[in-house]
Design goal:
single chain; 152 residues; OB fold (Dihydrolipoamide Acetyltransferase, E2P); 27% strand
């Protein structure tokens, strides 16, 4: 009987939907603490896929060649004795971030600000002379849609 190994993986990439030998799927790349990587495929309508977020750390259970995501609040009999589930984990304390992490956050926030400004410009150009509230809500819709489509 194969033993279960509990591992933590941080999501690096949530890929676009692809068609494979067994139908459509979305690839997800988990980077492990030791630097190795694990690709896991999900059906596009898989409920757990909707809960996954880039940059979050999750627990995975490896049994032989099979790797399963441990749902938040769930544990396996083998994993229960070792570590409680932590998905999603590692919420960062902003006051204890290193300089590199602070720069990464600042760059990300700047990029999101640029995207928001671009969405506002597009909304103004496409909608023309409309009320400010319409521009604001359209900007928010464009921004959220872009974030979801490109996993930002």
């Amino acid at each position: 009987m194969a033993t279960a190994t509990l591992i933590e993986g941080t999501i690096e990439v949530i890929g676009r939907e692809k068609n494979g030998q067994y139908g459509p799927y979305k690839p997800v790349l988990f980077k492990l603490a030791d630097g190795s990587e694990i690709w896991k495929s999900y059906k596009p309508d898989a409920p757990e896929l909707a809960q996954l977020r880039k940059g979050q750390t999750y627990q995975l259970v490896k049994v032989g060649d099979e790797i399963k995501l441990v749902a938040p609040g769930q544990s396996t009999p083998q994993a229960q004795a070792t570590t409680p589930p932590i998905a999603p984990a590692h919420q960062t304390d902003p006051y204890r971030m290193g300089d590199d992490q602070k720069r990464d956050v600042a760059a990300y926030v700047s990029q999101m600000g640029d995207l928001l400004a671009y969405c506002r410009n597009v909304a103004q150009q496409k909608l023309g002379d409309v009320e400010e509230e319409t521009i604001r809500t359209s900007t928010a819709s464009l921004f959220i849609t872009a974030q979801r489509k490109f996993n930002l």
